[in-house]
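Technical note accompanying the year-one report. For the benefit of new consortium partners, we illustrate the data format agreed upon in the data management plan: each record pairs a sequence with a structure-token string. No post-processing was applied to the example shown here.
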Amino acid sequence: MTGMVVALTAVLAVFLDRLLGEPRRWHPLVGFGYLAQRVEVRLNGSAARRWHGVLAVTLLVGGFVFLIFLAQRNLGAWAWLLDAALLYLAIGAVSLKQHAEAVRRALEGGDLDAARRSVGLIVSRDTADMDETAVASAAIESVLENGCDAVFGALFWFFAAGAPGVVAYRLANTLDAMWGYKTARYLHFGWAAARLDDLLNWIPARLVALTYSVLGNTGVAWRCWRSQASGWESPNAGPVMAAGAGALAIRLGGAAIYHGQSEFRPDLGEGRTPRAADIARAIALVDCGVMLWLVLALIGGWAIA
């Protein structure tokens, strides 16, 4: 496809996400998750090693990418329709916004229990004892990080490698969400999924950090990115959330409880502690970033046409 067709296809996919939202039934990623569970049961036995995880990732990701290549060849000039559909299914901007807005509304309505339940749907930490600040902070961290994982990362790999790229990225991201834990069950088996996700997110995460910096409090975001990102456990979440927190001029991080164990996390950003209204600001930051990427893609497509 030409650069302009790629850009227009991305615009169409984002428009479909805004118009339709995430499919409520029969989402392909749900079916992929069930298939991944069956593969994991077969390969992740008591003597599982890293190569079992490598094999699982290769079969699942490589197999579907190969099918996309075949489908594109058979569709010929109409392959852009498949590309638009796949990118639409890979983008989760509206779903992320809806979940975050549910947290904001509950906080602003004074219903802390409902806010805890809502934020528990988008974070992996324990939420039962969170206060209002912790709930708002968790929601904002999710918006900033998942903005990269579920939106910008998919757009980047679509621009870089078309439909096969976005499918490989989204499936690797899904496997990391399922297997990328340092528990007894997944420490070795999940290694390949976690490393592949880190690799595919390395460039997008830094472009997202740059995007957040440009669209927010640029100087603060840049300073936080440079000084704080390396202290975060994830090599990609650190730059994204440090720059995002700095762009919003708020302070994230701090202690959190995961699976009953308290974990200390370095501070991210500068300024006051977050509140409910800052969730909407984080959503707006992601939305503006998406618009910026699409405009730049259209300009680039027109320039090389």
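Partners are asked to follow this layout when depositing records. The two ends are 11 Å apart (CA to CA).
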